[in-house]
Write the structure tokens for this entry.
Amino acid sequence: MTNSKKKTEKEKFYLTTPIYYPSGKWHLGHCYTTVYGDAIARFKRMEGYDVFYLTGTDEHGQKIEKRAESAGVSPKEFVDGLVGEIKELWSALNVSYTKFIRTTDDYHVKAVQKIFKKLYDKGDVYKSKYKGKYCTPCESFWTESQLVDGKCPDCGREVQETEEESYFFKLSKYAPQVRKLLTETDFLQPESRVNEMVNNFIDAGLEDVAVSRTSFKWGVPVEFDKGHIVYVWVDALSNYITALGYNGEKESADMKRFWPADLHLMAKEIVRFHSIIWPAMLMALDLPLPKKVVGHGWLLFGGDKMSKSKGNVVDPFILKERYGADALRYYLLRAMPFGADGAYTSEALLTRINSELCNDLGNLVRRTMKMNEQYFAGKLHKGKESEEDAAIIAKTNALYGAVKQDMDAYRPQQALEKIFDLVGTANKYIDLTKPWVLVKENKTARLEQVLYVLTEAIRVIGVLLLPFVPETGEKILASLKLAPPETNDGLIYGNVKSYETVALDALFPRLNVEKELEELEKLASGSKAENEEVKTEEKKQVNEQENEYITIDDFFRTKLKVAEVVACEKVEKADKLLKLTLKVGEETRTVVSGIAKHYTPEEMVGKRVVLVCNLKPRNMRGITSEGMILCASEGDKLVLVSPETAIGSGAEVC
Ligand code: MSP
């Protein structure tokens, strides 16, 4: 079988996953889209495609602006501190992206300005007034009729009444074309998402969308009207073309080569933006439309979407550290049926590692390599086939075609099922042919052929596992003294005529499930405390927005004390931060505070301030900050809150 494209006629494949909000708390649910994309990118590369796999970060918006403000740093400083972590996550999970775009990258900002201007010049963007509801966490505008019980239909949180002058994009003009695209082509998959989009949005009437904001600053400024910034979704969606060098005016080489995208991959809640607003924007820009949008399901935890604000996140760094990248990749890719939600449980993760990776796959490879070494010093040659070999050979030959079919339909879960079906068949073949009996009976030629048949099946399995679990695929091939092939050529029985194999260590260590569950529970309670903190912080923001009352008990959960500043210095490379050494009664604390624009270090020494003592310590610029000092602010003015007359440090504020 020679299905791979010859080097000279390489076809392109442009694949994108969403660009992530730099939230700073990455959970396993976040990993799914990008690992899914990586399996497709690797598979396509193996098929000889010239793959461009794009990912990145979505760094503008009111949410980021607010969080940066509470952290006392500029939005750019805030996002700079978080982008490294997501890159670390992708590298920990062996994600082989081609390019990482940040929406704060200069070329992207400039290109978004040009795109906005182009839409304006064409008359598809016009100025008017927006009056309606806005959900800040989702950065989404809603009409009254779209709200569910008066709340955001996506996240269920309160929305804010918003009234601002705004630019609008003429989405209504493109409604008939978008409807056609969704209902008459297979642009959007799975089919169930098409129904969601048509019933919930298109049939409800596509209104023009507000595409600029004036009530905050952290975004791409509209070039010709500086008080406005471009709506964060217009900014974010444009990344798919700005990353290729599109700037609204000139076509770049990458744009010519890779656009339109072959696949935009994402979870279901953002399909609306990708299958309605994005195609309409492209139509307005006179650009070709992406070939496919796939909206996968959610990874659920305890029946709910795994999400930071729900406090049910599972830390991928912890799981990677304990079980390795491949175990996690395998679990994610195997646990989620196409388009549907999948529930995460630690039991399911550990059981899959033990039964499928360690027992079924690991034992097959280890046993075979051990027998190869024991009986033939690892040297095997193709022999005469017998009837017993027919079924496994047929399955080995059919595997690539079956996996390709699933991967062409972007269904990695089904592809993995097929690979593991051959793993199962190979294990049964050992039981059927009983190599240990063949040894006793001195049937050396038959024994060699049985081991050769197994080794060939293992080669095909090893190669086809590379896109899903690359480290494992490589280990398997290394035990056959083969390098990962550059193409999928030769994935049939008999292609490698002789072997010199080497024994290998267990691919996956057997886990003590009970012990691991206990350990994970302990580790999770640490993360839970952190999640609680995030939840409290988010609730606090919502309360602030709604002016809700708190109870006296809520108030007294905050321990406030008078503290004396005994030393103070600037924090290096952070123009807003001061590092304070505080005396609180007998105790000494270090606190990092965003007041450097208002007070010099010299001014601060000797002052008495009010300290929030029971705030969870957090790391700021490499310094552990143990609390927060209170200030009052009005516009650009900021002053410290201090006791009116002298009172000892450590005195309670009540
Ligand atoms: N910034 C937007 C995307 C803009 S694309 C032009 C965004 N970012 S996100 O960080 O919130 O989400 C990134 C990806 O992770 C999205 O595909 C999102 O749907 C996905 N997931 C977040 N939580 C998830 C689960 N619990 N399960 C599966 N995918 C999930 O949306």
Observations:
- The longest helix spans residues 513-546.
- The CA atoms of residues 113 and 192 lie 35 Å apart.
- The chain is about 45% helix and 20% strand.
- Confidence is low (pLDDT under 50) at residues 1-7, 541-548.
